[in-house]
């Protein structure tokens, strides 16, 4: 099969021919249709997030089940499926207490080691050299993933668009519903409306927020945010964003401010616009070692909550998202601005790094 291999940091992806992997017990082999292009992959490529290389990145996949390992009962060959980037083990302490988004097995074996949960990767070069897997290693024609992270899709959901459900929409859902707890009539601001930020906008609107304020420095992204449900947009390159938010909210600030870029500056911005008793939800992944400098007196005196949000709970939240999509309450296709082939994946990530991708790009990896 073809795969886009990250050989080393600060180097473009390389398209290679490698053997098709095989699923083991409790695992599923997916013939990938599509893989979303996520900024987190870019952090690995730039050396900003530690990960063993060489490896195959890509962690938003949709496709058709090609084969199942022993003991898999939730899907079967031929099923149309989507995968979640967090692949819960189901047995660690965090999974046992309902916090699959903090699955310690996933972080220890996959995110730090590039393997599945027996400590071995399923991907190798033709000469036997192992290739690390970032989640399922979705920038390839086939992927292996634990069955706990695979979910069947109804026919009415487009297979190529649904890839971004597994990270972009999944991450936004965890932030809005599980951590931000957005409620009817509340005010929301989203700082940085890239792929995840656009989905935070639409989920906040679906959750009943009275006002949804999108903040960015790119007019195209702000225009898209209006189509996704933003009631107000602010170009932070042209006006003071904090003053603009205060003007919209009558000087109070917002009930929930979401940061979706992963920088200290935008996180400070989110903290500045939260009202008394408000929630600041940090969603963007920053480079390792990034430190937040905020006015602690303001945080204490105004009882501002600063919370981190990483993904969502796969086995609870992905089925909920699929139901919302099937009911027509969420829009995936409008978030996607470009579809490219696997051969074009290296340049697409470079375009993402240059800030040229509106919403989400999707790599079409198969039928």
TrEMBL record:
Requisite cofactors: Zn(2+)
Matching entries from Pfam families are given as:
ADH_N (PF08240), ADH_zinc_N (PF00107)
Listed SMART domains: PKS_ER
Q: Which residues form the Enoyl reductase (ER) domain?
A: 8-363
Task: Cite the GO molecular-function annotations of the record.
Answer: oxidoreductase activity; zinc ion binding
Query: Which PROSITE patterns is this protein grouped with?
Result: ADH_ZINC (PS00059)
Annotated keywords? Metal-binding, Oxidoreductase, Zinc
Q: Which InterPro entries match?
A: ADH-like_C, ADH-like_N, ADH_Zn_CS, ER, GroES-like_sf, NAD(P)-bd_dom_sf
- Annotated PANTHER family: GROES-LIKE ZINC-BINDING ALCOHOL DEHYDROGENASE FAMILY PROTEIN, NAD-DEPENDENT ALCOHOL DEHYDROGENASE
Family the UniProt entry places it in: Belongs to the zinc-containing alcohol dehydrogenase family.
UniProt-recorded name of the protein: Alcohol dehydrogenase
């Amino acid at each position: 099969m073809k795969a886009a291999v990250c050989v080393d940091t600060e180097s473009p992806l390389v398209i290679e021919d490698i053997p098709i992997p095989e699923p083991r017990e409790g695992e599923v082999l997916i013939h990938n249709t599509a893989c979303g292009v996520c900024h987190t992959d870019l952090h690995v490529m730039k050396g900003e997030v530690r990960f063993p290389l060489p490896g195959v990145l890509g962690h938003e996949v949709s496709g058709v089940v090609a084969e199942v390992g022993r003991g898999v009962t939730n899907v079967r060959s031929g099923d149309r499926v989507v995968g979640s980037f967090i692949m819960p083990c189901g047995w660690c302490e965090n999974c046992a207490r309902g916090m699959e988004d903090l699955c310690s097995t996933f972080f220890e074996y996959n995110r730090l080691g590039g393997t599945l949960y027996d400590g071995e990767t399923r991907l190798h070069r033709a000469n036997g050299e192992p290739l690390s897997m970032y989640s399922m290693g979705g920038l390839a024609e086939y992927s292996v993933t634990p069955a706990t992270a695979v979910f069947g899709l109804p026919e009415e959901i487009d297979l190529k668009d649904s890839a971004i459900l597994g990270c972009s929409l999944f991450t936004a859902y965890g932030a809005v519903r599980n951590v931000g707890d957005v409620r009817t009539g509340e005010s929301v601001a989203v700082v940085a409306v890239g792929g995840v930020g656009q989905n935070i906008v639409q989920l906040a609107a679906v959750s009943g927020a009275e006002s949804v304020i999108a903040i960015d420095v790119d007019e195209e992204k702000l225009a898209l945010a209006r189509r996704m449900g933003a009631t107000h947009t602010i170009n932070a390159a042209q006006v003071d964003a904090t003053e603009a938010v205060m003007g919209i909210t009558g000087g109070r600030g917002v009930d929930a401010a979401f940061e979706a870029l992963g920088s200290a500056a935008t996180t400070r911005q989110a903290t500045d616009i939260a009202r008394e008793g408000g929630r600041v939800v940090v969603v963007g992944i920053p480079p390792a070692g990034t430190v937040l400098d905020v006015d602690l007196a303001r945080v204490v005196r105004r009882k501002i909550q600063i919370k981190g949000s990483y993904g969502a709970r796969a086995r609870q939240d992905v089925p909920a998202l699929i139901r919302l999509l099937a009911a027509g309450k969420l829009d995936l296709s409008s978030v996607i601005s470009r579809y490219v082939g696997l051969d074009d994946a290296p340049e697409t990530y470079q375009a993402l790094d240059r800030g040229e991708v509106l919403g989400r790009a999707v790599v079409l990896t198969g039928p």
